[in-house]
User: Fold this.
Amino acid sequence: MSQPDPSTDKPRMLDPVLIHARRESVIILILFGIHMVWSITWCYWNGYHLPPDQPVNTLLGIPTWIFWGVIVPWLGVDLFSIWFCLWYMALDPLGEDAAESEFPPQYNENREVE
Amino acid sequence: MIGVVTTIFGQTTGTNSALVAFVIYTILVFVIAAFAGRLLTGRGFLGEYFLGSRGLGMWAFAMTFAATSSSGGSFMGFPSLIYTHGWVLAFWIGGYMVFPLMTMGLLGKRINQIARKTGAITVPDLLSARFASVEIGALATLLIIFFMSVFLIGQFKAGALILQTLLQDVPLFQVSEQSLGTWLTQLPLASGQTPGYLLCLLGFAIAVIAYTCYGGFHAVVWTDVMQGIVMGLGVIIMFFLAIWQVGGLSNAVTELGKMTPPRRHHAFLETSSPVENEFLIPFGTWIAQSTDGGATKRMFRTAEAALLSPGASRARATQRSKEDVETVEVLEITSPEEIARIQPDSLEIPIKVRVAETKEYAYGAGQQGVYLRGPGPHATNGAGFLPLTLAISFFLFWPLIGASQPAQFVRLMAFNNSRTFVRAIVTVAIYYTAIYIPLMIIFTIARVLLPGMEIEADRIMPAMAVHLTTAAHMPWLAGLVVAAAFAAVMSTVDSLLLLVSSAMVRDIYQRHINPSAKEKTLRWLTYAVTLTVGVAAVVGALNPPEYLQYLIIYAGGGMGVAMLVPMGLGLYWSRFNASGAVAAMLGGFGPHMTLYVVGTLYYGRFEPIKLWNFDPIIPSLALSLVLGVVATYCAPPTSAKVIDPLFYRDS
Assistant:
């Protein structure tokens, strides 16, 4: 969480918004990966290899492979989103708005920073 | 007299409702823009005009995000694909299940925070401040102007086409088309288009440019809210009407399971003896024909209009410039259940169809159930509509490219606090579920209710709206339903218009030409540039490139691969520096562009090379990431003076 400031050697604390946002982003990416593997694997094995003469099974009027491969994970992500956004994600203060009329100080210092 | 009036209105109620809906809708848009315009006084002009003073509440933020993401493609192209290829489209759009979390949750909080800390009001502003580099901002500006201009032209064309589709049967529009539209075709650069298209392009452009120009970001956001509501209502109404009229979803899927793809023919349309007077066989005419002594019934539908001249017994295609006009394109329905349901048109003169040449579907011909399984039928691709590698590409494409669009970055810079942010993600997630899953169901049902629409699949959305509402004895409702498609494209166009004009005024003029420009100057320049960008896009859409739809996909993908890595790593990795950002931008843009250029030269049409059958965004994103990381370690870190305020606690 803390790193030394190269100029002063004093420990610097990472911005809590950064810590929270990064943790939340990692969870979102993992969720994306899981659902991608689930959907693609399920749909491919159950929807792409049916013999032409075999009727397609349905559930609630939807082809079963779509129901379990797309609809169910989709609704699962929605439920997860409700929990994740309303109970897990941190309600971080995002700070005051810097004045827009002029560019922030570091903006014009690009020549000296690199 | 009363009888005549009643007859006219009775015949045109359904079609006029589209015009009435459009007029009411446009008036509402202008009223909203007028209110938004009042907010521009008394606040910092650029911050208010381009970003709404970072004050978006939950509903405004959620709906503008959702509406901007849903372009004309969601309401015209997507339904057309569902109709043509069946349930596999649910798999194709499957990446949308994580779309709200990926496009908002992944980067949103940090984008908003850094934008506040740096006072950024545009995407190049944000990148310049993060990397302390004017050059990064300039590169981002150029990329935004390049890609978004292409996108904008495409959306203007889509808007004009949707409007034309909505209004083409309205008598008032037909009269205007003959007079004003014909005059428009005589304008320079407009010679190649039909009067109807030009008239609609002009109407669409005037409406959207005027309210965007006058009201700025708030006008765009508030109209997006209205447009989002219209889109949602339209889909929900269609969903319940479709389920009711098909007799339940189970019945629809049973019927769909019996269907086989149609055949396309070039055929001679003939009469038994020469006709005395000119006789027109309209586009979309159903012609039944018995064979085997009446034992087998074949059902054809004309895919183009044909004309029998006096003394002739064979019709000629009327709207083809090719020399071969003897044969006419027709579609043949192939499943007996569909044939039994279709009522052929009663023609004054019996027409016989004699097939000259047949094109079977390359994948799925004669296969029952092909609309219910993967990879879905395809007319020309022997591997079907969605082979596995393409399915993987699309599952990645939607969330990753959606997460890297500058128009959405701007919205992420504009919400007012974290509570708004998290609630908006949930709202958009529920909204998308309520839109996209019903759309799937509605347009698979459309295959059952409206057979033979392959001849004009792009019109399936308005055609289905009119069919459902007329059958429910509520033709006036069609206007509201079809307005959903118009709202979708309008909400995307206004956002892009503002994005391009902000890049020019804020990121080019104020930053590089006149940093001390007065607010009054910036105000008038902004109006002028927004207007100019809009007019330029209209000029581009007068004669759009032939492969415009593919150019739109190229522009969306190209923007995404150039922006995702620089923005993502820039927000979360303090070591990531300007060298890495430039390498990542060019590392995404370069290979993506190269694959398209080489593909176009190789295939002779605008099509990319697909390495291992993957979309170009996959290798381009991978290269962008690798080059970004390598270049970062090859250059010194960004100064602590820049990094500390963005990554570390103030104390």
In short: Residues 101-114 of chain A have pLDDT under 50 and may be disordered. Chain A touches chain B through 73 residues (CB under 8 Å). The first strand of chain A starts at residue 2 and ends at 4. The first helix of chain A runs from residue 16 to 47.
